[in-house]
């Protein structure tokens, strides 16, 4: 199809403002009469809040309000399940917000936050997902799941025993990935105010304004039609702006004080304010024939969901579906698990569960190639998905499946006296 | 000693929410009296450039230039819900919604114009270079603005609202069998690294990335996505790691949680393959997430190629590489 504008190198309209520093990010907008709010976060990974004494903080000149769980009409939010408190009474991770302080200036708000006394009952915590999976481990979300296993996805295809019987070479290895932060350049910031219509207006950087609207409306007990979420320039997201961070707290403060409320995370606060990439442990056993055909894969993937469910179910599903790599493997047994722990909660991040498995399946491919004595390119060419291939989930790939074309383009860059090209 | 090696990584990625999760995007379109147009959609541009892509799609359909289109997004009081900017779905999914909406508004415009030009079918009408007219007869055309303005006088307006839903179905919970995602995006990358065997430091010298994009709606933005993806992949492979102690983050600062800087980013050659995806807008599929996937594998495989150390836990820190080299030496001595 011939196109003229589509396919051309049109310069983005937002480029100029960003290059010349004119673009307004949420931290750049202010309203007359605004107050500043800061969050008091739990230093404990697992605890109960026994009491909060804000008398001293309130007596500081310039402090407008200290809000706690009791002030939240519906104290929950979450993308799949509303299992995350706006302001917590039961702490599941370091950094869970327990109170929010509003004051005339940011300095006063931060000083007042130090004066709020929170009494915690510290509980035993679990940080290792395999430990958390044990049936005797205390469940962190008993109303959601009887154990800490939030999700298990099995994939079964073909006959694994037959696969191992056909395999001339088997590589078995353990892989692991780390907790990763999105580290977007612009920390979270929000400006919330009740406008002349009596509507709750929240300006922020988010990946999904309509989701934020729904969660703010739910928490405050408002209708969708009373809440406006307006997205200002987003300074990087990568999945880290999918869950709610400061939006509800800012809106709650504005709704309670009828003052515009500004909130802005420091970098350190930002690290505690959004999800992380799931660390994964991946046990892989892959078998191939001596001519380099993959015949069997057994994989077990354990993902650390951390303290809240966020997108963990979808992430670990994506890990399982993509665990084979883009290769035809007729006999497959894959199990992926998402497990609650008292670590920072894991959620969406660019690659969404399919980023971790690449380490495992592509390392296995190179190790198999070496064992068989063919090049890394050759083993991939012998197994890659084409139109009509069947995946580990039994999906027949129709339409656009041009991995062969991609490899043909990269092949010249791999030349170094390889073997079978 | 500094040793060099190259590595290859391939990946695939099911775009969209998947597994039957409702994956719906919506868009409103209005063609104005001066021949420009506005697209309203909830889809947030998080810096990846979706607003420009939607402008290009609308301009293409209406025979206009990109700057004739205003795209306004991510305001719940003004724009319809278009789902999350995630799952590599906005170019594909909201792109489809914008395309459907533009085509709907265009269809009533063409019907109106067909009547005005005494053409029995709108098939005979075309939009080109800001004009609307009869196909094959350049003498019978007028500026789009004039047509839209005249239409208003007769009570005709060209506005539309459309939604587009991606196809996916839930897999069987016992066997995992099913068709959970569509479309899939593929890619491969080559990394060349230099490993310092005394310090364990890895320097990425070059990355060549080839990605399947269906159709590059804007090649500059494709290159941008690839550059960003490779950079993030380098961080994932070599640098980034949250240090946790009993759930507490020990390095919540960019001075101790290291992300790649300009000095860590090598020369990146971004190539793409255009094999049209028939369900995508103008054949496009998404690239946002796929762009970072193969990098980690290409780097880890290149390290092995350079020094014979197989890193199995990320990130590949100098300590792990030195340990791997030491184990290799011990193995040789035995």
TrEMBL record, chain A:
Pfam families in the record = Ald_Xan_dh_C, MoCoBD_1
Q: Molecular function terms in GO for this entry?
A: iron ion binding; oxidoreductase activity
Lineage of origin: Bacteria, Bacillati, Bacillota, Clostridia, Eubacteriales
Which residue ranges does the record assign to the Aldehyde oxidase/xanthine dehydrogenase a/b hammerhead domain?
20-124
Protein name as annotated? Purine hydroxylase alpha subunit apoprotein
Automatic annotation (TrEMBL), chain B:
Positions the record marks as coiled coil are none
GO molecular function terms attached to this record = oxidoreductase activity
Tree of life domain: Bacteria
The UniProt record lists the Aldehyde oxidase/xanthine dehydrogenase second molybdopterin binding domain at 2-266
What Pfam family does this protein match (any one)? MoCoBD_2
* Protein name, as recorded: Purine hydroxylase beta subunit apoprotein
**Origin species:** Desulfosporosinus lacus DSM 15449
